[in-house]
Amino acid sequence: MKKKLFVLTMAAVMGLSLTASAEGEVANKDKPLVWFNRQPSNSSTGELDMAALSFNDNTYYVGFDANQGAELQGTMVLDYIKANAATIDRNGDGVIGYVLAIGDIGHNDSIARTRGVRKALGTGVDKDGNINSEPVGTNTDGSATVVQDGTLEVDGTTYTVRELASQEMKNSAGATWDAATAGNAIGTWSSSFGDQIDVVVSNNDGMGMSMFNAWSKDNKVPTFGYDANNDAVAAIAEGYGGTISQHADVQAYLTLRVLRNALDGVDIDTGIGTADEAGNVLSEDVYVYNEEQRSYYALNVAVTAENYEEFTDSTKVYEPVSNQLDEATSPVKKVWLNIYNAADNFLSSTYQPLLQNYDDILNLEVEYIGGDGQTESNITNRLGNPSQYDAFAINMVKTDNAASYTALLNQ
Ligand code: BGC
């Protein structure tokens, strides 16, 4: 066993030295690279950008299973409607109306969530073999073509389910998933057809909470989000309908762990599917690895009135992977990491605090860069000297833009 380890370590050392530059340093293009939260992909077709995902032998993506999560969110909303059918139709017109806040029409995760809700509620229409995910604008009369009216039978009564309105929540400067825009939208919608709105759904909690605070809390209209941020989980006690945990505690760990493993020259599964020496290991019910896509996906969990008390601290490290690594075998290394939008609720209130907890455990000295959510250059300008870092973790503004980063590493 020891011998095997030695051989493996030597191979790793040799592997690195083969690509070392004249000064004996590892070239930037050969350093470990992880994409997270926004998977390199074509924002129109969703097709994965495999060139970016396999930039070098130590490149990975870390995110969550978007389809599994989307289905959970749709089912959570549907179950709520069924369980509360007697009271949910506020104006008694036989139509259960909902509005939907869309995060980013070019982001696979946002698209999946829109589809998941439409699928569960029977409001989706087919487009090229998939549920159309375009925003409907306003559809109070049910005449739109990008969605259709669904029907739902509960206890012998048949209801119509209608997507009354949906829009991409993008602000005038171009930032997507914009909570303030969602707060304004619910103001506009409720003032013109408020009595028709029985349910509010959002692609994330940032926008969901903004709508809840602006209107639905006072009007006792159940509101559903995604992310299980602390404020949203706490709001369940005040009538927020529910949210989905995308297991950010597992994702933040994986984001840094794949870099750590590559830097140590150990098997990529160390401390992931295979326990490391400190005892860190993840079980199969919290993540999947897709080798072809070079992607790790955390699994989602629904958070509702029934179980929210277990989710009140979204920034707590996941216990099975909370053991300190030994500096002798995992010496301190420097990582450059960016958050695409410093104002994004999920990334700033949940993901980054988790990363900051894990970086100590994994002996990584991480420089955190916060972008403006609008332009890639605002971030890439701050990667002026990649040679100062041992590894990189990147969260793009737009999923098409991986090359803006890899170009800097190729120089
Ligand atoms: C989260 C959103 C967030 C987005 C940023 C998603 O996974 O659910 O809240 O705004 O990532 O890319």
Report on the architecture of this protein.
By secondary structure, the chain is α/β, with parallel strands linked by helices. The chain is built from twelve helices and 17 strands. It has helices spanning 2-18, 50-53, 66-83, 85-88, 108-121, 179-193, 205-216, 230-235, 248-264, 345-361, 377-380, 402-410; strands spanning 33-36, 59-64, 95-102, 126-127, 130-131, 137-138, 150-154, 157-168, 197-202, 223-224, 243-245, 287-290, 295-298, 301-303, 333-339, 364-370, 391-394. The strands form four sheets. The chain has a seven-stranded mixed sheet, covered by helices on one side. Strands 3, 6, 7, 8, 9 and 10 form a six-stranded mixed sheet that branches. Strand 4 (126-127) and strand 5 (130-131) form a beta hairpin. It is elongated. Residues 1-11 and 13-22 have low confidence and may be disordered.
Short description:
With 411 residues, the chain is an alpha/beta fold. The protein has helices at residues 2-18, 50-53, 66-83, 85-88, 108-121, 179-193, 205-216, 230-235, 248-264, 345-361, 377-380, 402-410; strands at residues 33-36, 59-64, 95-102, 126-127, 130-131, 137-138, 150-154, 157-168, 197-202, 223-224, 243-245, 287-290, 295-298, 301-303, 333-339, 364-370, 391-394. Helix 3 (66-83) runs parallel beside helix 5 and helix 9 (248-264) crosses helix 10.
